[in-house]
Amino acid sequence: MGHNAKGALLALLSFGIYATHDVIVKFLGASYAPFQIVFFSVLLSFPLVTLMLIRDTTPGNLRPVHPWWTALRTGSAVITGLCAFYAFSVLPLAETYAILFAQPLLITVLSIPILGEQVRLRRWIAVLVGLAGVIVVLRPGGTDLTLGHAAALVAAVCGSLASIIVRKIGREERSVVLLLYPMLANFILMACALPFVYEPLPALHLGAFGLMALMAFSGGAILISAYRSGEAVIVAPMQYSQLIWAVLYGALFFDEFPDAMTLAGAGLIIGSGIYIVLREGRSKASENTPVLRTRSRLETGTTLRIGPWIRAIRGRNRAMKEALPKPDA
């Protein structure tokens, strides 16, 4: 099996696990406020994430090099997690994914003021087509727009902002800083809100929270392996396979059947997103490749980010290659 084929299969497995994670979010959302879901997601993720942090050997402390950018990213990640979990709780799965899939389009737009990226005509057309797809999914005037739709849109915007900020400061900030600050902020803020919304947890639901944490961790670990095996331009589009899982899970567990307009809008969004990924993968089309660097998952601040670990692994691999004795000429 080729490296790219292996990377694609691992990515499909990872995003299948992520989709199952989101089904549990929707299941729990019927009984608990998103504040409580986020709180326990972070609480139960800490032991697993600590295992990854032990491997971070970069020197330094926990003081951010870019405090204002770090603060903005932390706030964006907290809002993203809260809004995304709420959207999954109240909207059909396929509809939620269709809106969240607008993230690559928004990252492309945000890369202009934040990264100084030059977006030329073809990528602008792709962005406009994708945003038209979002309008098709939302159908303003043709269907009732709810707080869940607004939450999904806010999650897409804030998730894109959090990702693009990492692209700007990620090379200078320690991975532990980028990971811990959003998790700690989520833990503290959700703990403050918890007394007002807390519902007792039966053993089954507590187990579901633990399973969520395990799935988020294992999905991230498998996605790291996918990016190690294959090229980002091959692995990244595999995120759209979550829509297939959403349709299947929605029909199987929640009696949800997306209509033709939702599927048509999702098709426009996915098509434009794939085009942008492929366009960025060309050597001279994008200076910063902001979409490919986001690693395809919303920045929710509830579990590990895979980007720093991929860079660390590749950095170690380069160092090992450079340390090997060169063959005599």
Largest sheet: none
Please work out how many helical segments DSSP would assign. 13
Q: Summarize model confidence as the mean pLDDT.
A: 85
> How many domains make up the 3D coordinates?
1
Topology:
Blueprint (H helix, E strand, L loop, with lengths): L2 H27 L4 H20 L13 H24 L2 H8 L2 H13 L5 H18 L8 H23 L5 H23 L5 H27 L2 H4 L6 H12 L6 H21 L26 H17 L6
Helix pairs in contact: 1-3, 1-9, 1-11, 2-3, 2-8, 2-9, 3-7, 3-8, 4-11, 4-12, 5-6, 5-7, 5-12, 6-12
Structure description:
This protein is an all-alpha fold and 329 residues long. It has one domain (3-311). It is 72% helix and 0% strand. It is built from 13 helices and no strands. The protein is globular. The mean pLDDT is 85.
In short:
This protein is mostly helical and 329 residues long. It has helices spanning 3-29, 34-53, 67-90, 93-100, 103-115, 121-138, 147-169, 175-197, 203-229, 232-235, 242-253, 260-280, 307-323.
Which terms summarize this structure?
329 residues; mainly alpha
